[in-house]
């Protein structure tokens, strides 16, 4: 193993360590929960505020959204497969919960100045 190989390995390990520390120390922060149905935004709620919200569409389909402790989940749904409920909680920018039968998408969006992994943060 040459000196260059050692330096390259050390640099990769340091970079991996920095990325791991950043991943585990960055919390949900000031993110937003965006609820959209059929591509139209219905609600935009702060992730930092505990909330229980019954989402109902024109056909009477219901999903119970719960924001608690910096994470969001669907607690109940009347769709046939209930995959959206079994998916569990999400808490990081870019994650989403989808209820396909109800055409419902719940996404977490972070603020660009506090979360550089948000899609908007990469734009010039």
UniProtKB/TrEMBL annotation:
<protein>
    <submittedName>
        <fullName>NusG domain II-containing protein</fullName>
    </submittedName>
</protein>
<dbReference type="Pfam" id="PF07009">
    <property type="entry name" value="NusG_II"/>
</dbReference>
<dbReference type="InterPro" id="IPR038690">
    <property type="entry name" value="NusG_2_sf"/>
</dbReference>
